[in-house]
UniProtKB/TrEMBL annotation:
<dbReference type="InterPro" id="IPR013078">
    <property type="entry name" value="His_Pase_superF_clade-1"/>
</dbReference>
<feature type="binding site">
    <location>
        <begin position="157"/>
        <end position="158"/>
    </location>
    <ligand>
        <name>substrate</name>
    </ligand>
</feature>
<keyword id="KW-0413">Isomerase</keyword>
<feature type="binding site">
    <location>
        <begin position="113"/>
        <end position="114"/>
    </location>
    <ligand>
        <name>substrate</name>
    </ligand>
</feature>
<keyword id="KW-0324">Glycolysis</keyword>
<dbReference type="InterPro" id="IPR001345">
    <property type="entry name" value="PG/BPGM_mutase_AS"/>
</dbReference>
<dbReference type="GO" id="GO:0004619">
    <property type="term" value="F:phosphoglycerate mutase activity"/>
</dbReference>
<dbReference type="Pfam" id="PF00300">
    <property type="entry name" value="His_Phos_1"/>
</dbReference>
<feature type="active site" description="Proton donor/acceptor">
    <location>
        <position position="86"/>
    </location>
</feature>
<comment type="pathway">
    <text>Carbohydrate degradation; glycolysis; pyruvate from D-glyceraldehyde 3-phosphate: step 3/5.</text>
</comment>
<feature type="binding site">
    <location>
        <begin position="22"/>
        <end position="23"/>
    </location>
    <ligand>
        <name>substrate</name>
    </ligand>
</feature>
<feature type="binding site">
    <location>
        <position position="59"/>
    </location>
    <ligand>
        <name>substrate</name>
    </ligand>
</feature>
<protein>
    <recommendedName>
        <fullName>2,3-bisphosphoglycerate-dependent phosphoglycerate mutase</fullName>
        <ecNumber>5.4.2.11</ecNumber>
    </recommendedName>
</protein>
<feature type="binding site">
    <location>
        <begin position="86"/>
        <end position="89"/>
    </location>
    <ligand>
        <name>substrate</name>
    </ligand>
</feature>
<comment type="function">
    <text>Catalyzes the interconversion of 2-phosphoglycerate and 3-phosphoglycerate.</text>
</comment>
<comment type="similarity">
    <text>Belongs to the phosphoglycerate mutase family. BPG-dependent PGAM subfamily.</text>
</comment>
<feature type="binding site">
    <location>
        <begin position="9"/>
        <end position="16"/>
    </location>
    <ligand>
        <name>substrate</name>
    </ligand>
</feature>
């Protein structure tokens, strides 16, 4: 059955603004982040969702809440799970990215940030993040899409990139070059066979 899946990275957070590694840190949205969430909702106007999923971190939860308020669908069921949390940045969490690059070298920090299977000290690689995201997707989200229901996921840059690898059949090298902008929805159309027939990146 035909269905749609919209994925959204939360709006700008305080650590995004300060150029810090966020990871599991439970930081708030900025004023700009809330505006991005409202703008995202306006871009999704007209889509009717049956279920919503988010992480347990408040920047994603608040973004979803603003989106649902903007599109007038506050009554929808919302499922929160740590499987959709941002990747754990371990010892880098809270550190300024530019200062960390000065300390360890830009090449090493780029490897920690962009590699598929290299973990930052004490943290998760994108591969490890994917190993918790995909089982949750298979068990809880994919069945709804197969039933023809439209689903909205609001989560984080790396948990969503991990899902994108699966949905778009991307290689580790390809995903290393992809960044998800805060508050910008990406919408997947599924055909009757359950395969993706169209992808929209709603930047404007």
């Amino acid at each position: 059955m035909k269905s749609q899946l919209a994925i959204v990275r939360h709006g700008q957070s305080e650590y995004n603004l300060e150029n810090r590694f966020t990871g599991f840190a439970d930081v708030d949205l900025t004023t700009q982040g809330r505006e991005e969430a409202a703008m995202c909702g306006r871009k999704l106007q007209g889509m009717q969702f049956e279920a919503c999923f988010t992480s347990v971190l408040k920047r994603a939860i608040e973004t979803l809440d603003i989106i649902l308020d903007t599109i007038g669908q506050k009554q929808l069921p919302v499922y929160k799970d740590a499987a959709l949390n941002e990747r754990d940045y371990g010892d880098l969490q809270g550190l300024n990215k530019a200062e960390t690059a000065e300390k360890y070298g830009a090449e090493q920090v780029a490897l920690w940030r962009r590699s598929f299977d290299v973990s930052p000290p004490g943290g998760e690689s994108l591969k490890q993040t994917q190993e918790r995201v995909l089982p949750y997707y298979y068990a809880n989200i994919e069945p709804l899409l197969q039933q023809g229901k439209n689903v909205l996921i609001v989560a984080h840059g790396n948990s969503l990139r991990a899902l994108m690898m699966h949905l778009e059949n991307l290689t580790p090298d390809a995903i290393s070059h992809i960044d998800l902008l805060t508050g910008v929805p990406r919408v997947y159309d599924f055909d009757d066979s359950g395969k993706i027939s169209y992808v929209q990146h709603l930047t404007s």
